Amino acid sequence: MLYEGALNMTTLLLSLQFDSNAILGAMASLLIGLSLGLIGGGGSILTVPVLVYLFSVDPIQATAYSLFIVGATSTIGAFPKYKQGQVNLKTALIFGAPSIVTVYATRKWILPAIPSQLGQWGELIITKSLLLMLLFALLMVAASFSMIRTQKPLGAHTIKPQSYNYPLIVGEGAVVGLLTGLVGAGGGFLIIPALVLLTGLPMKQAIGTSLVIIAAKSLIGFTGDLTEQTIDWVLLGFVTSIAVVGIIAGNQLSKKIDGNKLKKGFGWFVLVMGIYILVKEGWGAGH
């Protein structure tokens, strides 16, 4: 079994020199990890497009693969943050619990219950895959605006006593879990501001704590797919390993580079990608 896995991985690596999409996919996988390490969120929003357009993975399966890739990468990235005292485990548990329950329920029961074809609007046939990709593109656009807009850094200059707005935290956690379950994104761009505003965490702790939350809910959510889909572990291992290299490098670079300075540029990139997906999927499905 181990020999076959190594052989398959070697075959995949050798094929990269002939497949430009795979090379671009490897570079994009590195970017996913780098952005998670540098800015704490936003990188996972690229995982599904990378899998769908560069590795030709079915959109529904791509959302499942994304959960594993993002979860494993965030787990690795959270360790140094924890050692540096930048993870608040109590906050991670309070916010993460409703998110974990919701993402698992979404992957296990809600997503499989959605019909493969939902209807037709003119010439546009609305399938489950199309719905997920359009929803994902809208989420990318929303994430890009949160990164692009100029604002006073949350929690950068004031340290507030920690308090918990439990109803809002539970509600926000459930919403993030639902979105993660549907589209496979970690939702860091939603989690980090919520942790700062709803719990009073300083920004650095919010980033570290968000990685723990993303890791737990993504990996547990992925288990809901294990009995529903056949998993390509070779591809999954390949993309994950590159993303892990990226987040390790990003964690090191974050000590020298202010991630907030990179966030706006990355936001514009995510916006362009979101618009591209909306146009490609909407136009392509209608023609």
Layout: helices, strands, pairs:
Layout: H1 2-15, H2 20-39, H3 47-54, H4 59-83, H5 89-113, E1 117-121, E2 124-127, H6 128-148, H7 166-183, H8 188-199, H9 203-223, H10 233-253, H11 259-286
Antiparallel strand pairs: 1-2
Helix pairs in contact: 1-10, 2-3, 2-10, 3-4, 4-7, 4-9, 4-10, 5-7, 5-9, 6-11, 7-8, 8-9
Describe the structure.
The chain has one domain. The protein has helices at residues 2-15, 20-39, 47-54, 59-83, 89-113, 128-148, 166-183, 188-199, 203-223, 233-253, 259-286, and strands at 117-121, 124-127. Helix content is 74%, strand content 3%. The model has no long low-confidence stretch (mean pLDDT 85). A hairpin with a 2-residue loop joins β1 (117-121) and β2 (124-127). With 287 residues, the chain is mainly α. α2 (20-39) crosses α10, α7 runs antiparallel to α8 (188-199) and α8 (188-199) packs across α9 (203-223). A two-stranded antiparallel ribbon has the order 1-2. 45% of the residues are buried.
Distance between the termini: 45 Å
The low-confidence runs, each spanning 5 or more residues with pLDDT under 50, are none
Task: Please outline the major beta sheet.
Answer: 2 strands, antiparallel
User: Strand sequence of the main sheet, in spatial order?
Assistant: 1-2
SSE string, helix = H, strand = E?
HHHHHEEHHHHHH
Please indicate the count of domains: 1
**Which structural class is indicated by helix and strand composition?**
mainly alpha
The gyration radius over C-alpha positions equals 18 Å
